[in-house]
Amino acid sequence: DGTAVMTLNSRNLLKFEVYKDKSAEGALEDVTGVNDGLWEETFKAHKDSRPHGPASVGLDIDFEGVRHVYGLSERASKFSLPNTKGDGVARDEPYRLYNL
Q1: Is 89 exposed, middle or buried (0-12, 13-18, 19+ CB in 10 A)?
Q2: Which residues, other chains included, contact 53 with Cβ-Cβ below 8 Å and sequence gap of 6+?
Q3: What is the pLDDT of residue 72?
Q4: Which residues 6+ apart lie within 8 Å of 1 measured at CB?
Q5: Looking at residue 83, what DSSP letter applies?
Q6: For the whole prediction, is pTM greater than 0.85?
Q7: How far is CA 58 from CA 12, 68, 88, 95, in A?
Q8: How would you classify residue 89: left for phi > 0, otherwise alpha for psi between -120 and 50, otherwise beta?
Q9: Is the dihedral of CA 75, 81, 82, 86 positive or negative?
Q10: Strand locations in the chain, DSSP E?
Q11: Which has more confidence, 80 or 18?
Q12: 31-80, pLDDT tens digit by residue?
């Protein structure tokens, strides 16, 4: 019936982080000056090597007419995912999806 159920990037928050050259100036640290896990990270027996550095794509997704969104997040959270923006939020970081 042509009704929108989801809107992508309606708030123009698209961010595309490109690959980096490890020898480039500033490539070994993030905006805070930290190099913790930028090029390599280990979780239990799994080692995630990033030969081109950290790279990501981020955008805003709005689900029209929906009060709750359910899913499995990368951090401990309720199954009904809480808001990450606005007054009284527990954490103000967006949910991330990882492709290993």
Answers
A1: exposed
A2: 19, 20, 21, 22, 27, 38, 39
A3: 59
A4: none
A5: P
A6: no
A7: 10, 21, 23, 10
A8: beta
A9: positive
A10: 6-8, 15-17, 40-43, 46-49, 56-58, 61-63, 69-70, 80-81
A11: 18
A12: 666 667 778 888 788 888 888 887 778 888 888 888 877 765 666 666 67
Beta-bridge mates of residue 63: 6
Q: Which two tokens stand for residue 47?
A: 């080692």
Q: Evaluate whether 60 touches 13 at the Cβ level (below 8 Å).
A: yes
Phi/psi at 54 (5° precision): -70, 140
Rg (CA), the chain: 17
* Beta-bridge partner residues of 42: 47
pLDDT tier, 8 (very low <50, low <70, confident <90, very high otherwise): very high
Upper half-sphere CA count for residue 64 (Cβ side, 13 Å): 9
